[in-house]
Amino acid sequence: MHRPHGRIGAPDRPVHQPSSGWIKAQLDRLPQRLRFIPGSFVPLYDVPHLIQHGDHLPRAPQIIEGAIHVGGPPDRLEDRILRWLRAMAQDHLATQARQHASRLDVELGRVRVRDTISRWGSCTAAGDLSFNWRLVLAPPLIGDYVAAHEVAHRLHMDHSPHFWAVVDRLVPHRHEARLWLRQNGEALMRMGPPPG
Ligand SMILES: [Zn+2]
Predict the structure, then answer these.
(1) Domain count within the chain
(2) How far is the CA of 6 from the centre of ligand 1 (A)?
(3) Is 91 a member of any domain?
(4) Is residue 70 within 8 Å of residue 53, measured between CB atoms?
(5) How many angstroms separate the alpha carbon of residue 187 from the centre of ligand 1?
(6) What is the chain's alpha carbon radius of gyration, rounded to the nearest angstrom?
(7) CA 68 to ligand 1 centroid distance, Å
(8) How far is the CA of 41 from the centre of ligand 1 (A)?
(9) Vertex 192 angle, CA 187 and 196, to 5°
């Protein structure tokens, strides 16, 4: 089975153990958490978009001239934005994963998004993929790399040189993407509602 990758924090931190509750609590306590509220900027594919709320606006968020317009009750606004971002991440990552899968001529099972602080993506032996929805907040090349990485596990369930050669066939920028995730992953976790 494949080892975890793209972890947040120190590489030897046991994020899959019960202590992840402690890490979550620490993250929740960080003052820099950026909530999805009116006046905040959401980095949509790494491009800041101002959240604008108005009673007259439709409840479903819409992008208008570089801003996110959203109506409805203010108290559920963050939930609506979160659902909208998750749906966008789901669409985009599933499309990218299926494109990579067709290039490798491999089958995929279900593709879905999750909210976890420990992983950017995963692939089961049956070919079900899951991705962290927060990739929608990163530059497009990052999600594309993670999609390629998980699809490449359909050929190699390890991180051997053979595996990395497959990733490199799919995307030319894996070193840059891995570096970006190491440098920015923790900041992504501080955006929106706490991971859970
Ligand atoms: Zn992997």
Answers:
(1) 1
(2) 8
(3) yes
(4) yes
(5) 21
(6) 17
(7) 34
(8) 31
(9) 90
Confirm whether 7 is domain-assigned: no
- Give residue 58's domain range: 20-189
Dist. CA 19 → ligand 1 center (Å): 22
Average pLDDT over the chain, rounded to an integer: 87
Residue 61 sits in a domain of what CATH number? 3.30.2010.10
Q: The pTM is what?
A: 0.82
Q: How far is CA 12 from CA 4, 119, 140, 150, 189, in A?
A: 11, 14, 28, 22, 19
196 located within any domain: no
> How far does the centroid of ligand 1 lie from the alpha carbon of residue 125, in Å?
12
Rounded to the nearest angstrom, the distance between the alpha carbon of 104 and the centre of ligand 1 is: 16
Q: Spell out, as residue ranges, where the chain has pLDDT lower than 70.
A: 1-31, 196
Is residue 2 a part of any domain in this protein? no
Reported as a single tens digit per residue, the pLDDT across 76-107 is 999 999 999 999 999 999 999 999 999 999 99
The identity of residue 70, as a single letter, is V
Backbone angles phi and psi of 62, in degrees to 5: -135, 145
188: Cβ–Cβ under 8 A, 6 or more apart, which residues?
Answer: 134, 137, 138
